[in-house]
Amino acid sequence: MQEIPRGDAHRPMLVVSPIMSAPESHTGYLRNLVLARNAIDRASELRTDSAKLDELWEKAKIVIVSAEKLSATDSELIYFSAKEITGDGERYFLGIDQETGESYFAFHVTSHNEEQLRTLRQVAADLTDREAALAVHAIALSNWHTSHPHCARCGAPTRSGIGGAVRICTVDESEHYPRTDPAVIVLIKDLDDRILLGHQPVWPENRYSTFAGFVEPGESFEQCVVREVAEESGVKVHTVKYLGSQPWPFPASIMVAFEAITSKPSDAKPDGQEITDVKWFSREEFQASVLNGTLILPPRISVARRMVEYWFGGEIESGESWRP
């Protein structure tokens, strides 16, 4: 671990940890994406076996989900047994731990003891790989079920089915599957290996990040990269390269990360609406800005944070001032 000189006591500390290598099967370059960890077998083949799910439920570890929060302390999930679950709710099968054989479910309720609830943003970075995978799956499913109570064909009420993997119309029996909205997120670089970061007006002062936008109908990821970058930052990019992806269930996105190069960095200009300021950073300028507090980065759970760290050369640890 390399510690960059921290300046005086009133300035944040910048600590850089080497980025761990990923499995050879990984097709991108980003490592340790907080919300993309997977240590659970989702066992999708069991979802249609209602008798088996009933059997697993009786011995399962169950996470309560309510209003975009889940049962957890500040550092780990809180599990309940089937005997402790009372009242109405929907149960979603999350999967099986192949090492222990334990099964996991989420139970979605309209209300729960607030002292036992945390948001995914609050706890994700401190969870184990297994618990992070469970938490992301549980929140993503509950968000989707909450926002799709009616049939898109006839408007009738729907019910959860197949272990929470679908909603089924109570009138025409049509099946509706969870939706994920793809969005690209882009690390813009120039030929001198500087990066361009932008500021949104809804963010705290001095917070800057990479550029992102939703993929439009009939558009490829690469086309979306070029369009979104031009719209938000004014620069034209080329040499688009895939870096990785991670789910972002706030409420139902997946962030697909790319880097792209511009040959004309001087064209950078904010659109004035979504982005109100843009800045180029060399590594030296980036380091100095972090240390003097004029640059606040996205939270640790975001793919944007990992993209910047990948460019900088390692994981960046700092105090709460780094959080949004």
UniProtKB/TrEMBL annotation:
Which CDD domains does this UniProt record tie to the protein?
NUDIX_NADH_pyrophosphatase_Nudt13
| Top-level enzyme category | hydrolase
Cellular component (GO) terms are:
cytosol; peroxisome
Q: Taking every annotated instance into account, which residue ranges of this chain make up the domain Nudix hydrolase?
A: 178-303
Keywords from the UniProt entry: Hydrolase, Magnesium, Metal-binding, NAD
Q: Which PROSITE patterns match?
A: NUDIX (PS51462), NUDIX_BOX (PS00893)
Its UniProt entry gives the catalysed reaction(s) as: a 5'-end NAD(+)-phospho-ribonucleoside in mRNA + H2O = a 5'-end phospho-adenosine-phospho-ribonucleoside in mRNA + beta-nicotinamide D-ribonucleotide + 2 H(+)
Quote the SUPFAM superfamilies the UniProt record gives: Nudix (SSF55811)
This entry's Gene Ontology molecular function terms read: metal ion binding; NADH pyrophosphatase activity
Q: What is its EC number?
A: 3.6.1.22
Q: Which Gene3D superfamilies match?
A: 3.90.79.20, Nucleoside Triphosphate Pyrophosphohydrolase
What cofactor does this protein call for? Mg(2+); Zn(2+)
Q: Which Pfam families match?
A: NUDIX, NUDIX-like, Zn_ribbon_NUD
Q: Does the keyword Nucleus apply?
A: no
Q: Which GO terms describe its biological process?
A: NAD+ catabolic process; NADP+ catabolic process
What protein family is recorded? Belongs to the Nudix hydrolase family. NudC subfamily.
The protein, known as = NAD(+) diphosphatase
What organism is recorded for this protein? freshwater metagenome
